[in-house]
What we know:
The chain is of the alpha+beta class. Helices cover 40% and strands 13% of the residues. The chain contains three helices and three strands, in the order E-E-H-H-H-E. Strand 1 (5-7) and strand 2 (11-14) form a beta hairpin. Helix 1 crosses helix 3. 6% of the residues are buried.
Amino acid sequence: MKPFALESDRLRLEAPRTADIGAIYDACQDAEVQKYTTVPVPYTFQDAQFFVSQVVERVGRRAASTPGGSACPEPACWSASSASA
């Protein structure tokens, strides 16, 4: 399955990319994110790099090799940004 984005006038959702590592790291420093998700604590920059390079790409490879392009049962990974970004 080729990468794709879902986009509205205000929001764009797409798979996280290498360029998103810094933002993922920053978001995972929030105590509320750490409290309500399963991110490692402390969350390091290397954790963000691993997430994008291994987890997201592995799900994408599995989706590409699965009939219909579905990566199920694993959840999809999305990166949100403003539509103008």
